[in-house]
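A student in our group prepared the protein record below, which I am reviewing. Thanks in advance; the entry in question is below.
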Amino acid sequence: MVDHTLTTESEDAVDNGIAELVVKPHLILALDYGVKKMGMALGNTITETARAFDILAMDNGQPDWDNLLGIIKVWGVTKVVVGLPLNMDGSSSMLSKRAHKFARRLAHRVMEQHLPVTVCLCDERLTSVAAREIAWENGWIKHERAPIDDISACILMSTYFADPTSSLAIDAIKAD
C-alpha cells in the first residue's frame, strides 16, 4: 500500500474535461529512538526506499526539538515513523515506553506548529543487529562500537514500507 497524493496538473486541464494526474511523493522520516542518540533516515513513497540521513545527539532521551522540527519543516516530511523497541516476546521495555512517550510529544509539537505530519510507531526489533551486520559486511564501519543508528532507521523504514498497516498512528494509541 503506497501513500500517494493525486492532483491535477492545471486548472485548464480540469476546465477542458481532461484531468492529468500527477503523483506526488510523500517524504517520510524514520527515527531510531535512543536515550543518547537517535538515527534518522529519509524515505519517499514513490520508490519506497530510504537513505541514512543523520544521527542526532539526545539529552537523556530528549532531542533538540527546534532542530528536529526544523528538519521536518525544511524537508517537507508528511509522516514520522518512530521505532518502538519491544522485547523479543513483544512486551514493552523501559526504552519502548520512553519511545512511546517521545512519539506522543513529537505528535503534540507538530500539531502545535500546524504541520501536516502524522506520527506513528513501528516495531523495530533487531534493526540494530541487522544494521551492524550490514555496515560491517559493507565496510561502512571499522569498529564494533561505531554508530549505526542511521542505518537502523533505514531498516525501520524498510519494515514500514513492507507493511505500512503494521504501524500505529500515535493518536490511535492509548497513553501509558
User: Anything to note?
Assistant: The longest strand covers residues 49-57. The two ends are 30 Å apart (CA to CA). Residues 1-14 have pLDDT under 50 and may be disordered. The helical segments are 11-15, 65-75, 94-112, 127-137, 149-162.
